[in-house]
Amino acid sequence: MDNNQNPTVYNAPQPADSPRRIWFRPKYLIYALIFIIAIELVWGLKSLLTPVLSKKVSSPPLISEGASLSLISSSKDYKIGDKFLVNVNLSTASHKTVGTDIVLQYDPKLLEATPGAFTKGTIYPDYPAVNIDNIKGIISASGVISPNGDGFKGSGVFGKIAFRAKITGQTILKLDFIKDATNDSNVFEPGVSNDILKEVNNLEINIQ
Question: In the chain, what is the straight-line distance between the N-terminal and C-terminal CA atoms, in Å?
Answer without folding.
Answer: 150
